[in-house]
Every structure is written in C-alpha cells, then in structure tokens.
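My main concern about presentation is that the manuscript never shows what a single data entry looks like. An entry of this sort, consisting of the sequence and the corresponding backbone structure tokens, reads as follows:
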Amino acid sequence: MFYYKVNDRLVTELKKPFNAQKIRILETAFREWSKTQFTKTSLSAVAKELKLTKAALYRYFTSKDHLLNSMTEKSAHDMETALNEFIKSHGKDSLQKLIQHYYAFLFKFFQEHPYYCAFFHSYLMRTNPEHERQFLPLKQKIDRIFISALLNDGHTDDNECLEHSLRFIQLTGFFWLMQLFRNEQQTHQRFFDFSKQASQESIRQHIRKSQIYCLNGFTANLDYNEIDTAAIEKTSWIQPREMLKADRIFSAIEQVIAEEGYTNASVEKIATRIGINKSSLYFYFKNKNDMFFKTIKREQEHFIDLTNTRLQKMNSFSEKLYSFIITLTSYTVNNPGMITILNWARYQNVGIALPHRELHKIFSQFDFKTDALQHDSLSDSKQDFSTIIIFIFFQIMYKLQDLPIKGKSHNNYLPFTRQIFSLFCNGITGYISRNKKPLQQKGKAYVKQQ
C-alpha cells in the first residue's frame, strides 16, 4: 500500500470557505479521470463536467500537475485521518483481530472513496518512485503495529521474514479489495471499473476471503513439511540455457528504458532503436497494446512449456504448487527484462491485463488444478483457480521487482520462495506455528533495512 506525508498547508487551505470550489474540482477530477484509470488526465474533461472554462480552473490550480499534486495530498489526508482512528481503536489488538479489523477498515475506506482506489492503483503506482519515499512515514506507522502483533504472536524476528510477512498481509488485503472492482468484460484498458457498486453481501464475502486466506492460507489439509523442497528446487529451477534468445522489440524496449527511463521511453524512440519509423511499426501492430501483447506472447508460451515439463515430474498437488512457484521465480530471475517490460507498460499506460478468456486459456494448461480439487486441497473449492494463480504471480513479481537480480545466485531466492509457499498454503498463523521463536526472544526490536 502507498501512504503519503500530508501537506498541512493544503489541508488548512481546503478548510477555508472560499475553497469549497477547490474540493469540488478535486472530487470531479477523481471521478472523471478514474473513468480512464488516469490514462487520460484532461483538464477540459474536468471543466466540462463542472460547466466551467479552463481559465476558471486556473484560478484554483495553476496547472494539471498542481491539480494532481493536490489530489495526492487530499486523498492522503483523508487516508491518514481514517488510519489514525483505526490505530487508536485497534492498534493493540492481537494479530488475528488486527488483521480482521484492518481488512474491514481497508474495504470500508475504499468503498466510501472508490476513486481514491483508482488513484492509488492507476496513477501513484506508475508515477515517479519518489512518491514511495513521501509515503514512508505512514507506511512505517501501520508496519509498526503489525510488527508488534507478529512478534507478540511468536513470529521470528528475522528482518527479511518479517518483511515478507508484512508484504503478504498488505498485498492479500489489497488484492482481494481490487477484485471488487474487477471489470467482468476485462478489456485491455478496463481491467477495473471503479464506478462499480458492489453489493454488501459481495463486500462481506471479499473481506471474509481476505481474512481467511491471510490467516489460514489458500489450502486445506496440506502439510508444508510433506514435500522435499530442496529436491523440487533442483528439478524445477530454470537454467539460463533454457531461455529464449531475446526478441528484437523486447531488447529495444529494454535498451531505450535504460537510456531514457520509463516515462520517456516512447514508442517512437523504440521504433528508432529497431531501425524503423513509428508508422512502419504500426504496420505490424494495431497499436501500442498490440505491440506489448505480441512481444510477451512468445515468452508466455515458452514459460508455459517449461512449467508443464516440470509439473509432469511432480506427484502431489503440493509438489506441483511449489514447482510452479520455483518455475515462475527462476524464469523471472533469468529474464529480468520481463519486469522492465511490465513496468514500462504501466508507465506508458499500456493495458497489461489479459482478457479473462485469455487467462482461462493460459491457466487451463497447468494440470494441478484437478489434483487440488480431487484431493480437497483448496480452502474454497468454488474459488476461481486462475485468480489464485494470479495472486501467486502478484506476490512473486511484487517482491522480485525490488530485488537486484543480476549477479545473484539462485540460492538467494530460495528463502523467499519457501516463505511464499508456506504463507500461501497455511497463512500467517501456520507460518508462525512452524517457525515459533523462543519465548525469551519476544519483543526483540525489528529494524527495517532501508
């Protein structure tokens, strides 16, 4: 999750009666721009909705950047206010109660402010990484109460393990929150629909899912210790010699990003690097989205082939599940450009979500879903299996994009893959029970490595 250190000056200004119009403009911008998931941030659209001229908007906001910065501060102020109330009421809860109440808080806040959810997901997460440092004070505040609850419940005080558990808690809640806004049509540019009004029953079900999956995991009757993790890692880790040779478009995108950065790596510059003009590039591709999907399709098909080859060597559902985690991690480690491409797509407003029919086509090729259902391995047999696989992908990619991949031995990633597998299978409570620290170590200070 992203949090923001609030600009007190702006908050003071917004309390003045004269600036009721500023609030109207901010709210309209949230609503209008979220319709395109902030891929189009036109002041004209905001002015038209308010029945104002653009010149009138400039009385309150001197530029579009000024308006966007104010939107960041306004949404952050509301989030901080709500978060402070939450901490005041539940900051000393037990771990189980804290997670249950925190997820209920997240869902309630973003259902009341759905356009903030669009803003965090679609704008802040693809803009300048400086935003993360600005959000750090509030992030640390919520981290502290979870760290205290984790340690009091017996969680190991190892920094890296604590960081993985914190990520798992945050990402699980955010992932299932976002499922409420999922657009059933799932076109490339509209994977989420933030105007969607979920029923109270649907909200309750999603809150309950996030609570159960975080605390107890996604699998039932599965013992983490029943598999030989070292043997599966040896069999499933993809070697560099198995990878495809780099695609020229793929390579061009990587090279331009390295030189220009994500924001400035335009299609025109990529075309120039390939040695053709932009119009010639669109002779082969319908648009920027089409270029992106055709570029990764080859990688996608190769990954499926490598994964299925490994899954066929496994016996149980748990072995296949861990093999999938190792395969996905090693494929990404051997092809760090994939993370670069995905980040470029996000910065360039490329719709990176596959239509639902394509997701089903991809995940139907993994044969361990049948094993899971036959052996009653899933906590919720009605849960869409592709959503579960996306959740694993979400957790792994979020972690790997923060790691310095080049020059690292595959052994550097195995503690992470083992913890992800453990958390996915049996949740926070299961992970803690297997890694209980001695009582005399409780309360040892956790110092996050910045």
Notes: DSSP finds 21 helices and two strands in the chain. The longest strand covers residues 182-187.
